[in-house]
């Protein structure tokens, strides 16, 4: 009986340490878009559906050269093309894959392309998030790094 309790306690400790070692995904991240070279910030938040979403909250250049706000003009959904660029949800329903120890989604949106990609996100440090978007297989993709600021 004591041996079972000891094994259970060791297992619980291991599980708790694994959760403690994984930084929280929620927060504000700054990054430089590899396509446009533009600085941007996103907020990752609990979507209330068992996952996380990420929305653009700041752009270094939120306006067009004529002063008008930049819009989500390449969105495949015509109803969303009038949405301001700094309001775009760029990742939907990120779910944690316990086995691979990373967050995954089939809905990473890149407004410069107007396309959705599969993606995974994993921490390389407590503040550095690797974001890999791809088509088909992760080897066929592109990586960006987001720095957690809050």
Automatic annotation (TrEMBL):
Residues 30-148 form the DUF2147 domain. Gene3D superfamilies: 2.40.128.520. Keywords: Signal. Pfam families: DUF2147 (PF09917). Residues 1-20 form the signal peptide. This is DUF2147 domain-containing protein. It comes from Candidatus Gallipaludibacter merdavium.
